[in-house]
């Protein structure tokens, strides 16, 4: 049987994690700002359902990667507060993963939004 109170408590803890991510982490704030701009541009270009699904998936993946990266960095700082070459390598790999996903998301955004931008541009010059 499912313990509804445990499920609700888990959602509350997870929600607090999301709030903390965007409240305290500068990079998450940057990702939130850019995602907001992308969503506004998406409304302007009236993206179809498939385009929205792809864009929103990319946004979610970048935010999730940023949350994992933040968790890994906080754990590293807790385990080894001083400077340690292995901890640096772990943190660099973790932030590198976010960068890889962010680059992929930018490319996806350019493919989807860029095609709409080009179509709008051509319709204006004709």
Automatic annotation (TrEMBL):
Substrate binds at residues 66, 95. Its cofactor is Mg(2+). It is found in: Cell membrane. GO terms for molecular function: ATP binding; kinase activity; metal ion binding. The keyword Transmembrane helix applies. GO terms for cellular component: plasma membrane. ATP binds at residues 25, 73, 91-92. It comes from the Bacteria. The active site is at 66 (proton acceptor). PANTHER family: DIACYLGLYCEROL KINASE. This is Diacylglycerol kinase family protein. It comes from Spirosoma validum.
